[in-house]
Queue: 2 jobs
Job 1
Amino acid sequence: MRTKDRTGTLGEELAAAHLREAGHTVLHQRWRCRAGELDLVTRDEDTLVGVEVKTRRGTGFGHPLEAVDAKKRERLYRLLLEYAADQELLAVPRRLDVIGLILAPDGSCRELTHLQDVRP
Amino acid sequence: MSMGRASGVALIGTEGHMIEVEADISQTLPAFVLLGLPDASLKESQDRIRSAANNTGLALPPRKLTINLLPAPLRKSGSSLDLAILMSAWAADGHVTGTDGIVFLAELGLDGRLRPVRGVLPAVASAVKTGFSRVVVSRGNAAEAALVPGAEILAGDHVAEVAHAFRSATWKPLPGGTPEPLDHQWGGSSSTQVTERLADRAPGEETAGADAGSPALPDLAEVHGQYEARFALEAAAAGGHHLLLVGPPGAGKTMMAERLPSILPPLDEEAAMEVTAIASITANAKTVTSLQRTPPFESPHHSASSAAIVGGGSRVAAPGAVTRAHRGVLFLDEAPEHSRQVLDSLRQPLESGHVSLHRSAGSVSYPARFQLVMAANPCLCGMNTGAGTQCTCTVLQRRTYLSRISGPLLDRIDCQVQVERPRSVSQSLESSGEPSSAVLQRVMRARAAQRERLAPWGLEMNSQVSLKLLSHGLRLPKESTGLLDEALDRADLSLRGYVRVLRLAWTISDITGEDRPGEEHIDAAMQLRQQLGGPA
């Protein structure tokens, strides 16, 4: 496994743990379809939540949150719609969250930012 | 709190409009939204601001930052709002506090350095007038901002210093260490402190004083002979009359005109403020450090377009030569060579004292109360003087040359004189002429007399007096005006010409210190109104 993928997986684990603590029920991790992949899909009370996890080992290339631009956000909304259709959850309210993670050199979490409902 | 406020100033012409800058940080994906009609140069500020913040060590949070510039319908441009935007953003993030109601006027470098901007003087002046007396500027603008009475100025080199001065309770030390404190603190005795420190720092630079660094003006003592033209120049200076000098090449027309500022009274506080404000917004202005007390002198080349003369350019029009000559002299050498359009475009500012320029991006009004001095050759070859034996022009050429200056424009010029080449060597080269300082004394006395006499009508100079006033409030007895009345009856003189002769007569009597013009003054005034190309 390449380092960048390991970083990603590690981040997703940390994010999932954070979400469980925050009361989410994790439904899927790395849900894939033809259009792409959702890092995490959870249920927060009555809402279906698609979560994009962005992990970095430093801010030398900018804050992880800055990597989620308008185009990527559009794509994530489409994916979440596909997921809802696939799971027959179209009637459930849904939203998109983004979690930005900065890891310390030893792989522990240095900073975790959870942005809820990132509609423009 | 995720809201921050600061103030800035948007300049339209020389008029400042207060801008309230609001910053809001919302918990969503990083973005920078700038609202309130920013133009391209202002939109670029977002990248300058993020970099400046990062390099200062107080990075803006990776969230959505919405900046709102109020009032929304006013178009804003330029980089002078950079500092205000950054301070409001930091206030929203909680790094700084107390920026509400403080005016910030500086451009940011990527490293967070504060850079001077244009138009600080009019901006600070209008801020103070609106009740915002506390202003933060870059050190390069400190002296200029301090010229405004009542302004409390903070000046710094780096945005870190400004941030430190406004630090909040949760302030964390910067990686670069504690920055130097800003020059001056609020509530100090006066803003001159800033300029004193500025002087300490740069001993080579001029200090801001009452009238530091005005260049030595050419002196009238260098003009030999030319008694008539000298007298016309003195009368023009004393009464604020526009002047036309006609004479052959080498007669000294340009030399005379260039010496007019040296016999004009220094600008008073209000005028100096206006003139310096115009200098501050002009593109090629050097850094303003003191009020300009010498009346400006503008002499555009005759190839100038009307946009260069009255002001122009796309979007919001920039000031032209008439505005730069405000409260001073606009000298048009070789006046008939100027395009007709340019000459006639002067009529409106001559009448109203300002120019209104309308463009798609909005209209702007600039002050343009200048004294017009024109110089012209008598004909195309320039030799049609005296007997005119050396003139090689055809009759038609001679007739058309001066008529390029249109009648309506000539109409507005009170004082029109012939300048001859000095004939006698002994007369012209032996003794030097009267120095400007001596002439200035008489001019100032004459100005004082006019102000006192014309005060009830709200006027200051004889050149502003109307026919109505001359025929009622300032009516002269029949004995004095006899000669003039005859000329009018003979149709040698139009009614407009009649008015101009009377205005000049009043000025001449003011120079000689009389109460009111007598017959001899009116006679002298008629000499200064020699007919040049067409009836007077």
Job 2
Amino acid sequence: MDFFLQQTVNAVSLGGTYALLALGLAVVFSIMGLINFAHGELMTIAGYVLMYCGLAGLPFVLSIGLAIGAATVAAVLMERIAFRPVRNASGATMLITSFAVSMVLQVLFQNLISVRSQPVLLPPLLTDSVRMFGFVIGVNKLLSIAATVVMLIFLDWFMKRQKTGIAMRAAAEDFAVARLMGIRANSVIAGAFALSGLLAGVAAVLWVSQRASVDPLMGFTPVLKAFIAAILGGLGSLRGAVAGGFLLGFIEIYLAAYLPPEWQEFRDPIGLVLVVIVLLIRPNGLIPAPALKAHKV
Amino acid sequence: MLTASPRNMAIALAAAAAFVIVAALVASGLGAASERVLSVFFISLIAVVGIGIYSGNSGVLSFGHLSFMAVGAYVSALLTLPAAMKAATLPKLPAWLAATELGLFPAILVAIVVTCAFALVVGLAVGRLDGSAATIATLGLLIITHGVIIGWRDVTRGSGTFFGVPRETSLWVAAGWCIAALVVARLYRDSVSGLRLRASRENAIAAGAVGVDMKRERLISWILSAAVMAVSGALIAHFLGAFSPKKFYFVDTFQLLAMLIVGGMTTVTGAVTGAVTITVVTEVLRRFESGFDIGAFTVPQVFGTTQIGIALIILFAMFRKAEGLAGLKEWEERVFTRRGAEKTAATLPAVSDRSALTAEHMTMRFGGLTAVNDVSVTLRPGEIVGLIGPNGSGKTTLLNMLSGVLEPTEGTSRLGETKLDGLPTHRIAELGIARTFQNIRLFPSLTVEQNVLVAGLSTGSGEDARARAEAALARLGVAGHADKDAGTFSYGDQRRIEIARALACQPKLLFLDEPAAGMNREETDALMETLRGLTRELGIGILLVDHDLKLINSLCDRILVLNEGRLIASGAPAEIRRDPAVIEAYLGTSQTQDDPAEPGHQPTEENDP
């Protein structure tokens, strides 16, 4: 039972990170139909900022703020430079553009920073663990869960109570009509990218605090998982992205914990097959996007 | 069966073969290094056209095709690996496999069969998803396959190198298979299945309405493309002699996709253009990667020069030419445009089966809104029935339910004795109900002729498809447009082309959703004559939605009036004009006794869900 609870904490922690990343993807996708492959590079940027701040001896809390800020700014710049020219193009065109952006950034990191993985200085508190309810939990896991909860509450408030957030939801349901209502396309898209950058930044801090290192391809794997989480939840659906992120986290952690040793090698394929089974039952994801219902003939 | 002109196709195929042969001759003259580069190019090109067969024709980008390449590579390599080598490196292989030692050619054939079986299973699953979700699902396929190959150590040596494969892929072997792949891809694009798939790429709903079973066509192209990928995988395995699962993962996926997309994924010309461009740029940049001198300056070694080069080409292509360097047409389609269609003698056959469409208690609810509420209608071949009502009264929703685009919340419909409930749109089209759309839904980058031909090919078992298509175009007076892209025409022409396309389905019943919208008086009058001809000469039944009450009144035998989702009146035009409920619905008051046709209800854009 203890083992199960322990694994559940791990699952919530990992699932939360996936959920934040998937949310960032979903915010952008729901508005402009772009699957942003360069989302992972936003994470990597935040990771490198953490690394440099650590080297410069800045307090960790300040480093976190700078890292998240850097990812947010980078996301807005990315939209302005690379995605605006292809804004009204097909999904495939945008996807491939984002993939090229991702490639350019990776090569820049390799040349300007290092090809190899770099250590990130973390406060010793993060690597500690505490005893709670009779079992041991890493501080980083607890903080990660707390950060996820705070971000989800913030996002819910932002999307429901803030003008920009409501505008984004309107744009996600029907961009053309939203623009006719006086919502500015540039600002709502820039806002969506800023939000996705913010979420990527927070996810990057959580990711790095578990691993204490950063490399040019750091963002690739988690964002790949986030893509799958976003589909699992329902592409373009924000609630779906959260649900998908957590479900994927649970699937991965429980498989790692309970799959017999001889099957462990097939853990990732088995996890994905489970995802596929869910999708076969619900082809539009766990919580389909509202835009699907507004589909016109 | 081919849908393109045989002469053009022969030219295209001969040119593709000539291109490969000339390239191979040049390279073999230049020495071993060039031969290697060209062999890799040929193998990559096979993979690029392989992905293109599915992604190009269906419009669904796939990241998963390298799994098929991997299956092809491992299966063929396991078959050709010398038995002694298997005993040494893969001791746990089952006995029958350990003893097998095939040549490259039979090994490729087996690899194709195994890969196709694998693709069939995967395709049935992926086929349930659409658009971006399907794309990400193929990404999942890539990860799953990679994971299984790494995990299945007894057969694949896991993440380690699979070595000792006989290097049997010579330049000419690669060239031969490359020609075969180009021919297959080019033939498929202009086959019946390929044309149907391209129509569904342009507009999935319209494709269904003219009888295209999109899922089936997607599955066919998916399996065919998997077969081509298997060849590419087998060849690269037997070219390198040693490979690891990494060879079939993200890096190569992106490189091949870059080739396909930079060139233009909808054509074979594009695949070749992209493969040549990326290969040339990669080869040039590779020489600069380790640093070089320009005059007095020394440029230092830069990691990933080729990667940056490829990325910049992609960005350039996406910003400047989003449909790819080669555009949307094959080269010979641009060069050898066909002459305008000759006068056709073909005529459309009259409707023989006169069974009626009966719909009872049709109801459609969208959340809390009841768009159509308990409406029952009957429609017989040979009559023209008008369906009118104020904006938002549920006319288009009713059409959508009757044609299978929407599944009614309640109600049943049948054509003669055949129940239509729950049938997909393409089955309903096959049964003889064709339609047009309020917001025109043509296949914009197919020619007018292809637009109509695909309808003919997808209904009535495809019999006399070409004759039906020509006759339909002639009847609507748009035969002269046959060779141009449908998307380039004026609103009125597009409406006529859409009606011709519906007519090519050889329907018993034809639903027209605001056919006269965007037409002037003369055009509307001409359209009226055409529609009369369809009922009088061919016996087709027409259900006509329009806001032009003059058109409705003078054309229709019966008129149905909807208001707020309910059928409030039905009868002959003269009765409808006097019906107080109709007058109230149109004018908002029952006091006036004006003819609703008189106030000149303006045709307005309507957007019923």
